[in-house]
Amino acid sequence: MRSLTWLVAAARLLLPAENMAEIQKQIVTVGVTGASGAILAQKTLALLEEDSRVERIHLVVTEAGQRLFAEELGISTGDLKQLPDRVLARKTTKIETLPNKDIGASIASGSCTVDSMLVIPCSMGTLGAIAGGISDDLVSRAADVVLKEGRKLVLCVRDTPFNHIHLENMLRAQQAGAVIMPVVPAFYHHPKTIDDLVTQYVCRVLTQIGLEQEKMYRWAGTPASKKAEA
Ligand SMILES: Cc1cc2nc3c(=O)[nH]c(=O)nc-3n(C[C@H](O)[C@H](O)[C@H](O)COP(=O)(O)O)c2cc1C
Q: Which among 60, 61, 123 is the best mutation to test ligand 1's pocket, defined by most ligand atoms within 8 Å of the CB?
């Protein structure tokens, strides 16, 4: 990792700016909250970890988010530093876990280089905190910073049905610059498994931060043969 950082720094000095764009790697913050859908966080971390366009991932999991990892995936909290390895069941190299209570962590400041932030899944509680500018934990503070710095924030909100407060908070966050991406699966790619549903949704989320995925199904219109049948 250190040698990679050194390589990018050296390239910054040696290469013309237009070539830099090709090798500039992304730094992404991933917030995980206590909404249902821990599997979405797991898939997101797996795709980011294996993506050569990504340099580093800051991971912040709320207390309720940790509970959901346990409830839905049977992953115990334990030592937070080891959480990425437990979530992906392998040794990870790019993911750094930051405690949600540490509102003085690097990503709590706009001076820290972060290209984008995903909150996946995003609870109605954290949505409310972000929409209301209540930055009393690291997930909501980091999101606040991403918005104030004009960087990309994607909120993968999950609950159903939505009440008036949820909908107003979504509108407020969207008006402040966030992308509201409710956890709503697609079916036009004929998913056969839960993994098919999850992968397509997470690929769409990653596309929002400029990380287009080869695995993603792209609708190319109804084939002429099918139209003829109809
Ligand atoms: C099993 C379980 C499932 C939950 N699912 C949701 C959900 O889908 N959406 C939601 O907004 N809250 C859900 N909650 C409630 C949140 O976890 C709770 O509001 C929590 O305070 C959110 O805190 P956080 O935003 O700091 O993670 C769920 C809680 C549990 C225990």
A: 123
- What pLDDT shows up at residue 77? 77
Ligand 1 atom showing the smallest separation from residue 129 Cα: 25
Tell me whether residue 114 is in a domain.
yes
Could you tell me the distance, in angstroms and rounded to a whole number, from the CA of residue 35 to the centre of ligand 1? 4
Burial degree of 6 (CB within 10 A; 0-12, 13-18, 19+): exposed
What amino acid is encoded at 74 in this protein?
Answer: G
Q: What is the pTM of this model?
A: 0.90
Domain count for the chain: 1
Query: What's the CA-to-centroid distance between 123 and ligand 1, angstroms?
Result: 6
On whether residue 16 sits in a domain, the answer given is: no
Per-residue pLDDT reduced to its tens digit, 52-104 = 999 999 999 999 999 999 999 999 878 889 999 999 999 999 999 999 999 99
Task: Specify if 72 maps to a domain.
Answer: yes
Atom 22 of ligand 1, nearest CA residue: 34
Which has the closest alpha carbon to 34: 116, 79, 114, 100? Answer: 100
Q: Decide if 19 is inside a domain.
A: no
Could you tell me the sign of the dihedral formed by the alpha carbons of 92, 93, 99, 100, in that order? Answer: negative
What range does the domain containing 123 cover?
25-219
CATH code at 103?
3.40.50.1950
pLDDT digits (tens, 9 = 90+) for 19-40: 554 568 999 999 999 999 999 9
